[in-house]
Amino acid sequence: MEPTPARHPLRTGAALIGAVALMTACGGSDSGESSSPSTSSASTSSTSSSTSSDTPSESQPAAEAVITISDFEFSVPDAVPAGAEITVTNKDDVGHTVTADEGDTFDVQIGPGETKTFTAPESAGEYAFHCTPHPAMTSTLVVE
Amino acid sequence: MSRAGELTLRVAVAAALAVDCIVHLELADAIQLAAPGGIGGGALFRGQAIAAGVAAVLLLLTGRRFAYILAGLVALSAFGAVLLYSFVAVPAIGPIPSMYDPTWSDKKLISAVAEGLALLLAAIGSLATRRRTVSSRSRPR
To answer: Running DSSP on this structure, what letter comes out for residue A45?
Structure first.
């Protein structure tokens, strides 16, 4: 006797269950479980927590202020907004600092390969800074 | 070399080592920021400062050949290190951190000059005292 669909309830049941499962999966894809791309890309580098900001990264502003240290030279943006969070990345194999020439406006120590953040001064102006262990390394931070 | 000449040489070497000692002490905290790994650049600088200070005092007190040789070795270690780490990116070696620094500050330059001078003068002093030792031994009793 040849088998008929009625004689294979297991197969029919499995097919129905699979169809229901498929429909359920398709209907539940917009339940909000995907990660926010802004948060996942904001903190890819390690951040030390000594004197720098420890607040979790939220959505980054469009123009991110970054100072890069490479080959014993500072690369600074043209200008940063007053009070902006500035990220300092040290690409050298030795430690450096970003130390304001006058007063204690900012003084950040960045170990080899580290990344840290600090807050730009609230007052607009030009702030000359240097590296403490390497005084020949100098630059200026322009705050608008 | 006359006694006055040897005394002058002795004071000059000690003075150069004193400069080396003082500068290394002043820069120890800063170099620790730059070279925090291993035993730390600060510890190395303070060790160098102590060695230079001890060698200077020993030379001033004794004026002996071994003191000149010790002073020369201390000066050589510092002078060699500053030149090496200024021109070669030496990586960390065991407990000694990477201290590569191609920049030259005023203090670094002064220290390097003092170390070179100490090395040169200590070498002269070790030769001068050697001759004095030989001549004293050849004197009839």
So the answer is: S
What is the value of pTM for the model shown? 0.73
Burial A45-82 (b: 16+ CB within 10 A, else e): eeeeeeebeeeebeeeeeeebebebeebebebeebbee
Contacts of B37 in chain A (CB under 8 A): 112
The SS3 call for residue B18 is helix
Pure H helices in chain A: 9-27, 37-42
The answer for B 44-103 residues in CB contact with A (under 8 A) is 89, 91, 98-103
Tell me how many residue pairs between chain A and chain B have CB atoms under 8 A apart: 42
- Indicate yes or no: CB of B34 within 8 angstroms of CB of A134: yes
Bridge partner residues of A75 (DSSP):
A68
Q: Is A83 on the interface with B (CB under 8 A)?
A: no
Write the pLDDT tens digit of every residue in B87-105. 999 999 999 999 999 999 9
B39/B34 Cα distance (integer angstroms): 13
Interacting residues of A30 by C-beta distance below 8 A, sequence separation 6+: none
Span of A15-24, A83-92, A126-135, B8-17 with lowest mean pLDDT = A15-24
**Model confidence band, residue B141 (pLDDT cutoffs 50, 70, 90):** low
Are A96 and A55 spatial neighbours (Cβ–Cβ below 8 Å)?
A: no
Nearest CA in chain A to B31: A133
Collect all residues of chain A within an 8 Å Cβ-Cβ radius of residue B24.
none
CB-CB neighbors (< 8 A) of A91 in chain B: none
ipTM of this complex:
0.82
In this complex, the residue of B27, B35, B104 whose CB is nearest that of residue A94 is B35
pLDDT of residue B117: 98
